[in-house]
Amino acid sequence: MSDKAAFEKLEALGKNMLGQVRKDKSPTFETPLRSKSNVQFEEGLGYLRLGAKKEERTFLNVGQARTFMQTVSVANKTKKFVKEGLHTSIRGLYYQLKFSLGEDVDESLFEEQTESNVLVEDLEVALGVKREDLHLTTDRKGVVAGPMVVKDNFAGEETTIDCAKQGRSGWMIPSDVDNGMEFVEVEADYVLVVEKDALWQRLNEDRFWKKENCILVTPKGQASRGTRRLLRKLADKKLPIYVMTDCDAWGWYIYWTIKTGSMNLAYLGRDFSIPESRFLGVTMADIEKYDFLKKLTINAKQVDLKRAEEMLGYPWINRHKEWVGELKMVLKTKKKIEQDALQGERLTFVGEYVREKIGKKQWLP
Amino acid sequence: MSDGIFSKFKEYSVAEFFKKNRQMLGFSGKVRSLTTIVHEYVTNSLDACGEAGIYPEIEVWVGADGEDRYRVKVRDNGPGIPKTHIGKALGMMLAGTKFNRYAQQRGQQGIGATGCTMYALITTGKPIRVSSSHEGKKIECEVGIDFKNNKPVITPISEGPAEGGKCGLEIEGVFGGVRHEKSAYGVYEYLRRTAIANPHATIIYNSPEGERFVFPKSVDLMPTKPAEVKPHPLGISAHDLIEKARGAPYQRISAFLQEEFTRVSLNKVKELQEAVPDVDLGKKPSEMSWEEAERLVGAFRKVKWIAPATDSVVPIGAEQVEKSLNSIIGPEYIFVTRRSPKIYRGGIPFMVEAALAYNGKGANGEILRFANRAPLLFDAGGCSITQAVKSIDWKRYGIKNLEEEPLSIFVHFASVHVPYTSAGKQSISDEEEVVDEIKNSVMEAARGLDRHLSGKRRVKEAAGKRAAILRYVGQLSKDMSELGGVGADAAKVKERLLKMVEGRYGAGGAAAEEEEGEAPEGEEGKKGKGRRAGDDAGEGEEEGELS
To answer: Taking a contact as any Cβ pair under 8 Å apart, which residues of chain A between 66 and 85 contact chain B?
Structure first.
């Protein structure tokens, strides 16, 4: 979204409230309800999103007055950021808004950062903007290597970045890949996402992405907003997205957040989910298939089993019989396995594994 | 009680009997004995003034006179006692004018003042000193008792015209075995409560410590004199019946029943006869045996009666109670019930007047019990009034802990026949209808109090909300104006927002908010609403159960 569009949306919000005040009505802020009861999964879309339930916040309600005032303050402050063309983190925003409400008042506009964080989310969903559009950055996490050239317009300079020429470190995915970013060349056949940085480094050393003509990404655990946006953009360029994680609760969570979004962040909707993505492994079936893996399993923890049971209850997961079988196996064997175990026999096995899986289309949806 | 015991009883001097059984007159315990003495004299004064149509002005002095010895003086502006009656009134047992009268009265057996004389003689050997100004004449004398013969012993002091033609009575005595105490059982408390139940009287108390307390008259209206009424068959015991029959001037029991009781017609006598065919209703009432009386009373319970008239019940009156409590307790809020008389045991009319006085000078959670305008100070635990009050779920009415709230609970029980638990006449027995009515009365008053308290809470809450919102107006006006863009004037926005806040949470705004039902959705709003709704439902259930 352009700065102009974000600016206009924020100003329209203020104009609407001023209009209410002119009519002697309590100024009101309306936003889709972000509680779990309002999270919906639609098969046709393939990602989690918010339903029709709305939440209203109005100034003259004493229980909502403070939050209402804070919401307007956050909106006004980000409007300034956009106008000035400066960026900051949500923590920077918090410090901008942490001041006393008056000399004789023992109360600050914001006391805790958690107060302002949720209001940023409220504004995103209410106005249909991303926090990056409001000039709020998030922590960078995630690294890329592969045949991709990006033009980065930043701080008044334009830099061209070739992701194939980033040596051992790769290109760190910025918090915002939408504004001032241009993907000039993406000549890959597919995208491979590996959960762990260690595995990414292993495959990078093998020049796996060069041999396979793929884009190699690691979110380094849970995918950041920037990483998710990047994957979304690559999927939009019709690149298949393959994901590899540990075969445990945390790994599944990382995959499903990339694929459908999470319940907590359902408000992000399509922009941050990649329903097209595919799960390469590691799977429970792999343990049977590759003999050496049998010795490398770990006992599943309570949290893994509980998570597996929960996942069996989610309609967006249990509609896939492959996942039902996989998760039932977890509950039955009470085992889990890390993706690092693939190097158990020889370090270069990982590449072979990926090639075989993709070649034989052995992925989970 | 059989005929035998009663006739034997007569052989002894009544005075002798009571000398041996003084606790029956309330002379048990040092503190209680002193209160009883004051009670007897003050009650007599109130009654005498009432008979004569005079607004009572009663002054009481209590002074120390040695260890556990006190001098008590009571002076009133009543009609005084004629010379010929002084001995009877103060030196002879069972000589009062109230004995055997079926009308609402303060409840003395006619032995009160004489009992005091007796008590003075027993404990100090000193007679009572009396000064009576009656119809222009003033007589001063000392009164003692000849116990053996139940006869007064009068020692004249002086006789002459009354000063300035005034009337009145002054009694003074020295009593031993008594103690003055500033407690709920003491003289001060007794007089304060007497004043509450008798707002037409001025009562002054001079304590042993030299303090002077004045409870001034707060209403200009004399209490209605209670009418004498015939008893209803359902309100009488076998003992009462045989007592009444003893001296009745009728040839037949049937005539006696029709003449001496209300609602007994010829037809009803026939029904009674059918119920007890072997009791001869044609014989003389005085020949009625104990067993026959018991059977008749049993028959009374089987026949359908028209309820008795309730006009024999004389309440203090809601307005009078309110004025009185305002004058003596001076509370922030009063609720007085206005209920109609009810009937207990199927035949005895009674009426309960209840009032709650909140945030006044009374002790926290005090229960002010009265029967026919007389305060009940003792035996609180065994009294229906206490039990009824304690059985109420006060939390429902916004009272968290009764003992800790600045709340005075006034309950007056008025009836021709008060169901006392014992001869001490300090507590009311747990007749079901009586307990229910007391509870309902107090709950009615409690609902009034609840409305008051929740109104107060609302105003306080609104003030709190107003303050909370007001501190946000400045910042919001600024941000909102900036956010809305050019042309918006923060000062104007602020002005409008302030007006809105005042409209909803300022003085007078609180009520409007409630009426609109525009309850806030936030935490606070929800709590408030929920509590009230729950309360109302609970109350409805309770009422349904009782009615």
So the answer is: 66, 68-69, 72-73, 75-76, 79
